[in-house]
Amino acid sequence: MVDLLATSGDVTLSWTSPIYPKLYSNDSSINPLGKPITAQQDAWIGCLVTFGAILGPLPFGFIAEKFGRKIGLLSIAIPHIISYCTMAFAKNIYLFYFGRLLGGLAMGGGYTLLPMYIAEISQDSNRGMMSQTLNVFWAIGNFLPYALGPFMSIMWFNVILACIPTAFFLIFLLIGPESPYYLVGAQKIEKAEKSLMLLRSLKGKEVKIELDSIRAHLKNEEDGHLSDIFKSAALRKAFVICLVLIIAQELSGFCAITFYLQSIFEAAGTKIASDVSALIVGFAMLVSSFFAPFLVDKAGRKILTIYSCFGMFIALSLIGTFFYLLDSTDVNTEPIFWIPIFSLIFYIFSFNFGICTVPWTLTSELFPNNVKHVSGSAIASICWITSFLVTKFFNDMNDVMGRAGTFWFFAAACLATAVFSILYVPETKGKSFSEIQDMLRSRSSDERDISERYDFLKK
PANTHER family from the xrefs (predicted)? Predict the structure, then answer.
């Protein structure tokens, strides 16, 4: 049920693809603004959601830490509902700005709390698979605007979208369990036991071992601050790994491509209608999301990230080459009109197989409970700062570097991330939170010993 909130978040991302053509229309029956938007208004509608997402992790992370994960998740649904209702009846551009900013705040909070909550309610053996279910519902959220947006008015489209967070709020309020990790940390042991009994469908005695494990894990933890991360070699390494992967996720161009998918197909001039092409890619996004949950606890986080990045590198290089031939040469691209849609489908499959959710999964796994909310909020905010910059300047990148250069830039970022993952990303498959911390401390100690030996030999 909590994954419904993920759907609301990613609807916010791909919302622009079918809405931009309507807002550029001169037809007042299609465009509620009565006149076409400008290029600057286009850019602000696109990037304000990521600007809101930069700020979102901070208040919602605080709420989750202070009042519980359940209250935090419920509070995220409210701005989603207000955002869609505002844009459903907006008659001026500033209401669209407000709706996009509010939706971004909620989306940023969701990307912080959802991986944390799912990791904390899951068992060690299936935590990766459970975390990957987010990918399925994120993909549903990305698909809905392509499936509904081109064929509905802006008002009814947004009214329907508002029903998703509303349904989540009502269902989760009534039957959603609180995280047992939060409850143990708050010294609410009886409630934690009841939560585990509900989550595992077991009796009190049968969850005692897991409850004792959680209590032992949290026993020596004190309230953490962001500065605590930089004092510990193990946590510094975890922070850098998650940060690099999260930034790489955005530098792969996903948000920019999602925002401007229909426009990209229009620019490519393919034989297939741009809205149909976008719908096909959105459907590929949905289908591909179902595979990763079954692979992440078998293949592992590391290998999926590596293959994901190499796949995106190939796909983005291919579409970059297509635009180079189209824009900079006299080569006839009609015989290869299929390359843009093929490349973007391959790109989406590759994205969903690893880099889409593995960074968020690792963010929820690599940090102890006392700093999890501050690390998650900081990493999510930096993620959306990167996304804001990429989406805000996507059109400027096309003007300066050319469309081919922009896609090649994204491809280079994916290749660099694949190499980084081979060298530095740890494998957390099947490990408990305590085992992961022991692994990080052991690795950091080993690296420090190697560094000290190297310094000694130099002397």
Answer: GH17672P (PTHR48021:SF47), PTHR48021
Given a contact cutoff of 8 angstroms between Cβ atoms, the answer to whether 302 and 359 are in contact is no
Q: What is the pLDDT of residues 163-213, one digit of tens each?
A: 999 999 999 999 889 988 888 888 888 898 888 888 888 777 778 888 888
Instruction: Tell me the two tokens of residue 399.
Output: 């003007």
Residue 232 CA to residue 200 CA, distance in Å, equals 34
Q: How far apart, in whole angstroms, are the C-alpha atoms of residue 424 and residue 303?
A: 12
Query: Would you call 399 exposed, middle or buried from its count of C-beta atoms within 10 A (0-12, 13-18, 19+)?
Result: exposed
Q: How many domains does the chain have?
A: 1
Degrees to nearest 5, angle at CA 353 with 259 and 74: 65
Q: Positive or negative, the Cα torsion across 178, 298, 143, 60?
A: positive
The helix or strand, by DSSP H or E, that contains position 179, with its residue range, turns out to be: none
Report the distance separating Cα 208 and Cα 327, nearest Å.
65
Structure tokens at 16: 């622009």
Mean pLDDT score, 305-333? 90
Give CA–CA dist 6/14, Å, rounded.
Answer: 13
How many beta carbons lie within 10 A of that of residue 194, not counting itself?
A: 17
Percent pLDDT > 90 in the chain is 25
pLDDT in tens, 384-425: 888 888 877 888 888 889 989 999 999 999 999 999 999 988
Q: Which two tokens stand for residue 223?
A: 């309230």
Query: Are the CB atoms for 129 and 85 separated by under 8 Å?
Result: no
CATH number at residue 163: 1.20.1250.20
Place of tokens 């009796």: 203
CB 19 within 8 A of CB 151: no
Taking a C-beta distance cutoff of 8 angstroms, is the pair 69, 120 a contact?
A: yes
User: Which amino acid type is present at position 48?
Assistant: L
DSSP letter assigned to residue 80 = H
Q: What is the mean pLDDT of residues 296-302?
A: 72
Residue 281 belongs to domain spanning: 3-458
